[in-house]
Prior knowledge:
By secondary structure, chain A is α+β, with helices and mostly antiparallel strands.
Amino acid sequence: MRYRSAMPVRVLLFASYAEALGQDEVAIDTPVHATVADVLAHLRTMPGADRLPPQPLVAINARYARIGDAVHAGDEVAVIPPVAGG
Amino acid sequence: MRYRSAMPVRVLLFASYAEALGQDEVAIDTPVHATVADVLAHLRTMPGADRLPPQPLVAINARYARIGDAVHAGDEVAVIPPVAGG
Amino acid sequence: MRAAIVTQPIDVATLLAEVAALGHGATSLFVGTVRDTHAGRHVTGMEYKAYEAMALHELTAVVAEAEATFPGTQIVCEHRVGELTLGEASVVIAVAHAHRASAFDACRFVIEELKRRVPIWKREHYVDGTRAWIDPTAPAPREAHA
Amino acid sequence: MRAAIVTQPIDVATLLAEVAALGHGATSLFVGTVRDTHAGRHVTGMEYKAYEAMALHELTAVVAEAEATFPGTQIVCEHRVGELTLGEASVVIAVAHAHRASAFDACRFVIEELKRRVPIWKREHYVDGTRAWIDPTAPAPREAHA
C-alpha cells in the first residue's frame, strides 16, 4: 500500500455549477482518506468556483452524501445544484 | 280564483325510493299553499312509503329545497335518496 | 369550464386537451372507475342513474364554485350514466392551473362536492344476479366506500 | 410500480392503462407541462437535464416510498429530459387505488418528493435568446415557482 499517494476522483458538475466552472466533469487527485470536503476544497481553487454556494448538496456514486463522508479511489463525486425537476 | 281547490304536483322518485314505491313518478293533488311536507305526507299514504326515511332530501324544480318550502301548481317535486355519484 | 352528464364512454384525452393552455404548468386529472368489489361483495357491473336536469345544474355549480375558489383553474368534468362495465370510467375531472397546488386542490374539491350533492345514484350488479342501489350513508360491513 | 427518465414524449394513456386494475376505483394523474411564463419572463422553450443514474434511483425510491406510505396504490411515473417545447409534458404521474383519498395523496406525495430530491434541472429559453438554469430556492421576483 502507498500512503500519502494521490487518489483519482471524478467530479461531476451540473446545470448552473457546470456553467460556473465551464465544464461538467473534472478529474482531480485527492489525498487518501479524503472526504467530500476535501474534494470541494480542491474544486474551489478553480476559476468560476466562487459561484458555488458555501454548502452545496453532494452525492457519491449517485447517492446523496454528507460533506464529511469519505471518498475512495475511483469514486464519482457529484455537486448537486438545487434540483428543479417536475 | 278558486281557493281550497286541489293543486296538481308531479313527484319524482329515484333509485331506492322509486324501488320502494314501485314507480318513479307520481302525480298527486295537494291543497293550495301546500309545502314539501304536505307532498311527503301524501306520499306516505302510498304502499312501500314506509321505506322512505323520516327526513329525505327534496328538490323543487330541480333545485334542493327545504321541507317547509312552498309548492306551487305544476311544480316538479323530487325526493332525493342519498346521492352516490362519482 | 364545462360540466356534462354523458351516456357514452368518457375520453380522457379530450378532457386533458380541453383544459390545456400555455400558461398552465400543472394538470390534475381524476378518473373514477367501476370496481369489481364493494363492501366485500363481488360486483359484475354498475348502472348509474341521474336526475339529469338537476345533476347537470349541480355539477355545473360545483365546477363553477371550484373555479371561483381556486382562481385561475380551468376545469372540465364529465359524469357518465347508464350501464357501465367493470373498469369503465364513471367520472373524469380535469383541472389545469399555472401551479400544481391549485390544480390538485380544485380537482379534489370537485370530486368531493360531486359526491356530496350531485343527484346521481348507482346500482351494483352482483355475481348472483341481484342488484342493489348503493347508499353511501349506510355503514359498510367490511370496507369504507370508494 | 415503475419509474423512468425518458427522452421521448410521455404518453398519458399508456401510464393510465398501466395502473388500471379492476380493484381500483380511483385514479389520480398529474401532468407537469412547460409554461410560457416564469417569474414574469416570457419563456419560449425548456431544456431538462438529469444526473441520469441518480435521478432514476431517486425517482424509483420516491415511487416506492409512496406505495409503502399509501398501501394498495399502483404508481407509474415518467420524467422527460432534453429539449421540450411549450405545453409539452415534462412529468406524468399516474396513481390508482381502490379509493380516491390514497390515489390523490400518493400522487401529490410523488410530485412533492420528486421536486425536493430528484436530481433534474431545467434551463429556460427566453424570447431574447438568453437561457438560464432555474433555481427554485431563489426568490422569484413576481410569482411563486410552479
